[in-house]
Amino acid sequence: MEVTDRFQVVPAAYVMFRRTVDGAEQVLLQLRQGTGYMDDHWAMAAAGHVEEGESVFEAACREAREELAVKIDPADLTPLTAMHRTGRTGDPIDERVDFFLQCRTWAGEPHLVEPEKAADLRWFPLDALPEPVVPHELFVLERIRAGGIDPVVSFGFAGPALPSAKGSGSTDRQDAS
Q1: Alpha-carbon gap, residue 152 to 61, rounded angstroms
Q2: Cα–Cα 20 to 30 A to 98, which of 63, 88, 110, 135?
Q3: What is the pLDDT of residues 31-54, one digit of tens each?
Q4: For the chain, what are the domain ranges?
């Protein structure tokens, strides 16, 4: 039996480039423009959909190369969290699973390769992020800044907040309402 009306979730890879300068943690962000999605918002410097037949690590390395002209060894990517999210648009592919990966080592100097999709690229202290930041990415950045994030989180779904798996009583669920 062939299933043609199966629910689909779109996977994406996000690379959080991090460095330490004079004891301060910094993240590399790009200012989106001309894409029709979250234009004029700051976002992770490299991110994009996972292509068919590609692992999330391969997608992260490809996006970094395509968007920033840097080379990443997949072994230098550290998983931070997987986020199941929705924008509640009702679109057939509204729900996403985003894989956030940290990178502290790469070859080359990051620079914008697609200026039609990003207006700026800058390092920001993790404790002094610009505004506005894409909301679900800010959710991750704020938790990293606060000391950590659960391995799996959700964002944009209605309902009660779920306690952290760490038992801290914190919540890693964000309601869109």
Answers
A1: 22
A2: 110
A3: 999 998 899 999 999 999 999 999
A4: 10-134
Per DSSP (E only), the strands in the chain are 10-21, 24-32, 42-44, 46-49, 77-85, 96-103, 118-125, 152-155, 173-174
Question: Per the structure block, which two tokens stand in for 30?
Answer: 């790009």
Which pTM does this prediction carry? 0.86
CA distance 177 to 126: 27
- Pairing mode, if any, of strands 152-155 and 77-85? parallel
Indicate if the pLDDT at residue 162 is higher than 60. Answer: no
pLDDT higher than threshold 80 for residue 176: no
Determine the CATH number of domain 10-134.
3.90.79.10
The tokens of 57 are what? 């690590």
At which residue do the structure tokens 């996006």 appear? 63
Q: Give the Cβ contact number of residue 102 at 10 Å.
A: 17
Q: Give the pLDDT band (50/70/90) at residue 170.
A: very low
Task: Provide DSSP, 60-82.
Answer: HHHHHHHHH--B--GGGEEEEEE
